[in-house]
Design goal:
mainly alpha; 17 helices; about 0% strand
Length: about 375
């Protein structure tokens, strides 16, 4: 299955264009598959190589990707401080250790996931809702936080449940997080170039906790990496918030993608588009094993590529023209994905993101755009 692995890895370079989702790419490439082509290996290699390459636009171009939307806030903060390489090193080192921990944890997950699924299923929704309420209650400015959380949740609910845009996450997350960052940085005093990162020490405890969360996320539907990271930060506290958040984000994304494949084999639930795409093959253990091996090879190879060629980005010099160019790119991409509706989503989300920054509420409250739709999906609440 070397051809499938190589093709999936090469297709993963589309991660450099953050608005292209894995589900869309799989549908585009499928008609070109020859007879006997392994969907499982191709989908796995594509998913993991693309996840790694998505770190580039997330860190250096302040553009949210499907995998790392939750990591945009700390990465953009570090980038604007001239610490883009530091943010990138955190992500790629954390992804490396997350994959190692995922592989080592695989026997444990095989033994315990089916039992955990049957145990948690009856009370899961209420537990998740309670976690969200406790998280909101811990904020200092409760009223403003709840207001922003609810408003972003309503926008997310409309955008994600109605057929407005082909890839709704891109204009939604770009508006909430990317455009406001560009707006506030436009007149700021910015570094001329990204500084060397130096040595980076990864918090292995944070990475391992993120791996465990991702490993058992398959017991519940509608759990996004952003939701899982929010849960993680109810437990962990750190003085290095940006670094810890990036470590957790990378670990959760890698672990969840890895164990989504295993979860289908163990409990028969497809928790991602890539798994659903290859579901017929993944019900057979040798095919699952091939997909997991392909995932590991693709991720490690992509990490090596990013590590070697990331220096080409050293010439990036943030300035007014840079920010205008990125904003123009985001607007054009939103229009390509959804026409006028895509621009409307971008504009609405941008207004909400700017309002959040102006009133001084923690921008993590904007994650209601993903959390509220997830809870509504879990409880079977439809928006008419």
């Amino acid at each position: 299955m070397f051809e499938e692995l190589l093709a999936g890895f090469a297709a993963g370079f589309t991660g450099l264009f953050a608005f292209l989702h894995v589900n869309f790419l799989l549908q585009v490439f499928q008609p070109f598959f020859p007879a006997g082509f392994s969907k499982a290996v191709f989908a796995s290699a594509l998913t993991f190589s693309k996840t790694v390459f998505e770190t580039i636009p997330t860190v250096f171009f302040i553009v949210p990707s499907a995998s790392f939307g939750a990591a945009l806030l700390p990465s953009q903060k570090l980038f604007l401080e001239g610490k883009g390489f530091f943010a990138l090193k955190i992500l790629i080192h954390s992804m490396f250790f997350a994959m190692v921990f995922s592989i080592l944890s695989l026997p444990l997950v095989f033994l315990s996931l089916p039992f955990a699924f049957s145990l948690v299923k009856p009370v899961a929704g209420f537990a998740l809702a309670l976690i969200v309420l406790l998280s909101l209650a811990s904020k200092e400015r409760l009223f403003e936080t709840v207001l922003v959380f609810s408003a972003s949740g309503l926008v997310g609910l409309v955008v994600l449940t109605k057929p407005l845009v082909a890839e709704p996450l891109f204009p939604l997350l770009s508006g909430l997080f990317g455009i406001p960052a560009l707006f506030f940085a436009f007149n700021a005093s910015l570094p001329k170039a990204q500084a060397e990162a130096g040595a980076v020490k990864i918090g292995l405890k944070t990475v391992f906790a993120g791996v465990l969360l991702g490993a058992f996320s398959g017991v519940l539907p509608a759990l996004t990496p952003a939701f899982l990271i929010s849960m993680l930060f109810l437990v962990f506290d750190s003085t290095e918030k940006e670094k810890t958040f990036l470590e957790a984000s990378a670990a959760v994304v890698v672990s969840k993608n890895f164990f989504d494949f295993a979860s289908f084999f163990l409990i028969g639930k497809a928790r991602s588009g890539a798994v659903a795409f290859a579901s017929e093959e993944l019900s057979v253990f040798p095919n699952l094993l091939a997909a997991l091996i392909a995932a590991s090879i693709a991720l490690f190879a992509a990490l090596a590529v990013v590590s070697v060629f990331s220096r080409l980005l050293s010439g990036i010099r943030p300035g007014k023209l840079f920010f205008v160019s990125i904003a123009a790119f985001v607007s054009i991409a939103s229009f390509v994905l959804g026409g006028g509706a895509g621009l409307a989503v971008l504009a609405t989300a941008s207004a909400l993101g700017l309002a959040c920054g102006i009133i001084g509420v923690n921008k993590s409250s904007l994650m209601g755009c993903l959390i509220i739709p997830s809870l509504c999906f879990f409880f079977g609440i439809a928006l008419f």
